[in-house]
Amino acid sequence: MEAAGAAAVRTRHYARPGRRAVVITDLADLTGPVDGTVTLPLWLYWSGPSPAFELGVPSMRRWLYEIVLREAAGPEDMTRFLDRETLIGLWPELYLPKGVRQAWEEHHPVLRAAATASA
């Protein structure tokens, strides 16, 4: 279920050279699936054995979140595939580019708090 009217901002931080990190403005808009199999579209996942991720497998769930956080072009990518509570719970474990992590933590202090609490 996609949140209607969800918004995102391009930040001053970079996901990779030439691509600014995109951050959803309200974590409550993240209402993506929490179980089952999710298949990412080509614009998010263009290499690898399969674009299908089983959310019940912790490593696959983390990998999906890392890909979407790094590659999302707008709010619809995030609201379609990410869930607020899952993101907060996974945040300390995610391997993300420094710019992506900084951008999300600046906009959402609850993520910085999650990372600090697990340290």
Walk me through the structure.
The chain is of the alpha+beta class. The protein has one domain. 40% of the residues lie in helices and 18% in strands. The protein has 5 helices and 4 strands, in the order ββββααααα. It has helices at 58-71, 75-81, 84-90, 98-107, 109-118; strands spanning 8-16, 19-24, 37-39, 52-54. The strands form 2 sheets. The chain has a two-stranded antiparallel ribbon. β1 and β2 form a beta hairpin. α4 (98-107) crosses α5. It starts with 7 loop residues before the first strand and ends with a helix. The mean pLDDT is 90.
Give the topology.
Layout: E1 8-16, E2 19-24, E3 37-39, E4 52-54, H1 58-71, H2 75-81, H3 84-90, H4 98-107, H5 109-118
Antiparallel strand pairs: 1-2, 3-4
Helix pairs in contact: 4-5
Keywords:
globular, alpha+beta, 18% strand, 119 residues, 5 helices, 4 strands, two-stranded antiparallel ribbon
